[in-house]
Design a protein that fits this description.
CATH superfamily: Cytochrome P460
Structural class: alpha+beta
Number of strands: 6
Strand content: 25-35%
Number of helices: 4
CATH architecture: 3-Layer(bba) Sandwich
Helix content: 25-40%
CATH topology: Chalcone isomerase
Order of helices and strands: HHEEHEEEEH
CATH class: Alpha Beta
Shape: globular
Number of domains: 1
Bound molecules: heme C
């Protein structure tokens, strides 16, 4: 009888925890991976807070990890960014960088979504919690598809 009660308790416990989807797990992993991105490279002609008329916000700022930055500076590189490339974008409602509306990230993961160049798209709140979009998000790539390898900012 006691064993049954313990079993029931364990079952209830495991049901009460909301299971994360695979995409959410990847998104949480990406947040850990980008820790400290504020000290990453910024695109030369798009560094600091820039005006934007995109859906992201009126003002934005972009950072590149080493892989994407090296690629963008290599004039002999092709059009398709390599796996492991990460681009981060913070959006704000004013030029001072206040009222951050969110952090969006795109990361290239081998074979993640071959039809759309393997980008994993994710949006975070400023504290790093998931903001609702993560994975092969049509919302994101349908707008980004006009860019070279889905990248829209102008710069290196
Ligand atoms: C309606 C169009 C639109 C949608 C939808 C959109 N973006 Fe963007 N995004 C842009 C534009 C335009 C830029 C270029 C920089 C700028 O002007 O703000 C950009 C820039 C970015 C960048 C910097 C790299 C680049 O491509 O320039 C990242 C990262 C990014 N977006 C992530 C996302 C994610 C993640 C989503 C989905 C949650 C998303 N975007 C949805 C228009 C869009």
């Amino acid at each position: 009888m006691i064993k049954k009660k313990i079993l029931l308790f364990v079952l209830l416990l495991s049901c009460s925890e909301k299971e994360m989807t695979l995409d959410e797990e990847i998104a949480v992993g990406v947040w850990d991976e980008i820790n400290g991105y504020e000290s990453w490279t910024q695109p030369g002609n798009f560094s600091g807070i820039q005006e934007s008329n995109s859906v992201h916000g009126n003002y934005v700022q972009i950072w590149l990890n080493e892989i994407s930055s090296e690629f963008l500076h290599d004039t002999t590189a092709g059009e398709i960014m390599p796996s492991g490339s990460i681009i981060i974008k913070e959006a704000y409602s004013n030029i001072l960088g206040e009222n951050t509306t969110g952090i969006t990230v795109m990361k290239k993961i081998t074979d993640y979504d071959p039809t759309h160049n393997d980008w994993f798209w994710v949006s975070y709140k400023f504290n790093g919690s998931l903001a609702g979009k993560n994975g092969a998000e049509e919302f994101c790539y349908s707008c980004h598809h006009s860019g070279k390898d889905y990248v829209l900012f102008n710069g290196q």
